[in-house]
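BUG: 3D viewer hangs when loading the predicted structure for this chain

Environment: internal workstation, default settings.
Expected: structure renders.
Actual: progress bar stalls at 90%.

Input used:
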Amino acid sequence: MTVFVRDLRPGVPSDPEGFVRVRRLALPYVLFTPESVRHVIARIHPDAHYRALVAEEDGEVIGTAQVSVAHESTEPGQGYVNVYVHPGRTGRGAGRLLLETGEAHLASVGATRSHSWVLDTPGNRAFAERRGYAPGHTAHFLRRDLTTGDLPALPATPPGVELRTAADFADDPRPVFALDAETASDEPSAVTMSYSDYEAWLEETWEHPLLDRELTVVCVADGRPVAFTAARTDGATRYVTAMTGTARSHRGRGLAKLAKAHSLHRARAAGVTEAFTGNDATNGPMLAVNKWLGYETCATEVQYVRELG
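Structure tokens produced before the viewer hung:
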């Protein structure tokens, strides 16, 4: 059968459902729901030139790609093409077609460099390298089974620190945005970001349908958020920490560990059975926190890059 690539149709239920099915099989460490897929398409900033692509064969979605420009990068021209194919439908050309379509789109909107996260397996790495991509940053996916074993006891909350949730900032989330923007700019990455668009953050992040504000824990000191862990859930039993960070002025005090521990305890109490998190391979302190919480590495990915000619 012929494989062809097209844009995902958010109004056709089988398209977001097919996208989620492929991602769940190929990348089970990240949460996607049909609602979250539609949310990104509808809410992402126009300057991202975002496209959600699907590869279709005989009426079935067998591959997916997310393509966007990193419009808030400190270095212009950075783009992303992240391709994932149904594990049982590889070898049909879907990955190649998705990548070529994504690269052509990036080039058409002025991007000069394509970044692509690739699962660290021989086949996936060979696929990227045959197409001119060079390896860069490495990151780990970690998993914690919340149905077995005890969680470590909650650390003591330091004097002057108060624990809140994102729900407590529903009337004015700007302080949370300020902390998120500061910590994201320091996150290890091949693409350095600088976030300043509060309205875009509200649309894309604060209103994201998977954000669980009750499980997102914020440490407050001196009247402002100084550390947090952002939790997303699928509305059932799966949970992921999408971002964890501490303000530069308060690092080294164990606040990220405190926030993550409280969030994970609350998640288990809420009925979550499976927790995931991500970790840059060079971030030793956070790797230590996650190991202490009982997370185990379940997969590794490599960020590949190539120049677009």
